[in-house]
Amino acid sequence: MIIGIDASRTTVARRTGTEAYSLELTRALLDLQTDHHWRLYFRDEPAPGLFPQKKFDLRLITPRKLWTHVGLSRELMQTPPHRLFIPAHVLPAYHPCPSIVTIHDLGYIHFPQSHPTSQRLYLDLSTRFSAKFATHLLADSEATRRDLISFYNTPTEKITVVYPGYDESLKPVRHPNQKAIVAEKYKLPQKFLLHVGTIQPRKNLEALFNAYDPNQITLVCAGRRGWLSDSIYEKGKAQGVIFLDYVDDADLAALYSMATAYVAPSLYEGFGFPVLEAMACGTPVICSDGGSLPEVGGDAAIVIPARDTQKFAEAIRRVIEDDQLRREMIIKGYRNLNRFGWWKTAEQALKTLIADGG
Fold first, then answer.
1. Helix segments in 201-265, DSSP class H
2. What backbone torsions phi and psi does residue 187 show, to the nearest 5 degrees?
3. How many C-beta neighbours within 10 Å does residue 113 have?
């Protein structure tokens, strides 16, 4: 069987969650021992070594404009695979074979103000199209599965929840010199709380600004600017928050490892990769109950109602002051990671891909 994969997002230089998912899952699928043949569709030429397996048929599709609905659709019309996998929400207008699409989240419905109008409309139309016309859907979480059923009336049997993996190369950084280099590079204080993610209203950062005590510990927010972020930056800087913008992948492990705790107060998350990344680096996690975060954090995280600033403040204070609690959370975090892995994601995704009728 020939299985085609939309690999257009794998070549993005600065990857966020969706691009990381596309890259890591595609790599994991190629690593599986199978007799199926892979055909990868690219918008840009992949860099040497991006896919070290090299056991796939590469299709570079041009032009870039309207790549999915025109370029990829035309390619599928001329030489269709037996199955098509789209690791994001945009199913091509023409898809002549059984097609499986991953839906990461429906945050634009819960928080429409967090997106420009044109982007929100595009997300809604493209996801609605995929939910209706794809043969089967993979959902990153039970929270996303419930949203698909609730907002798009997607039949339950059409959705399979398949948890993403995490970057298993991330490990605790213990060498003082390595930490010192990263601390100097980003001008980090000795003691800080950490948040990683795009700066936007949905992340609920202003509640975190109100919850932590800047006289006790510094808050570091790493992530690029998002929609409607100006007021968040202004309030954060007034309270001593350090904004790092995008952090190099090579520095992430040290950044997580140096943090006293990782805090995710988001109002909604389709999955929440940084929660697992922090746990992998031996960092305690405090997160909200927004979307999938309780699923991801499991019993290893302290889970707080997203809008309860007082409880966030209490949890932060406990983790800062209680060494025993931190040790227990770190151990539980390592144990929680056993539920996730890209090889598990790939095996479940392939099972869905080759099933009759999706």
1. 205-211, 230-238, 249-258
2. 55, 50
3. 12
Q: What is the pLDDT along the chain (358 residues), one digit of tens a residue?
A: 999 999 999 998 777 778 989 999 999 999 999 999 999 999 999 998 899 877 899 999 988 788 999 999 999 999 999 999 999 989 999 999 999 999 999 988 988 877 788 888 999 999 999 999 999 999 999 999 999 999 999 999 999 999 999 999 999 999 999 999 999 999 999 999 999 998 988 899 999 999 999 999 999 999 888 878 899 999 999 999 999 987 888 999 999 999 999 999 999 998 989 999 999 999 999 999 999 999 999 999 999 999 999 999 999 999 999 999 999 999 999 999 999 999 999 999 999 998 855 4
Residue 150 CB burial class (10 angstroms; 0-12, 13-18, ≥19): exposed
Sheet holding 192-196, edge to edge: 242-245, 218-222, 192-196, 261-264, 285-288, 302-304
Specify whether the CB–CB gap between 176 and 260 falls below 8 A.
no
Question: SS3 for 58?
Answer: strand
Q: Cα(10)–Cα(78) distance, rounded to whole angstroms?
A: 23
Short-list 300, 295, 296, 287, CA closest to 335: 300
The DSSP H or E segment spanning 37 is strand 37-42
Amino acid at the residue 65? K
Number of C-alpha atoms within 13 angstroms, CB side, residue 163?
Answer: 19
Q: How many CB atoms lie within 10 A of CB 285?
A: 29
Cis peptide preceding 164, ω within 30 of 0: no
* Closest-CA residue to 13 (of 41, 43, 38, 54): 43
CA distance 39 to 78: 14
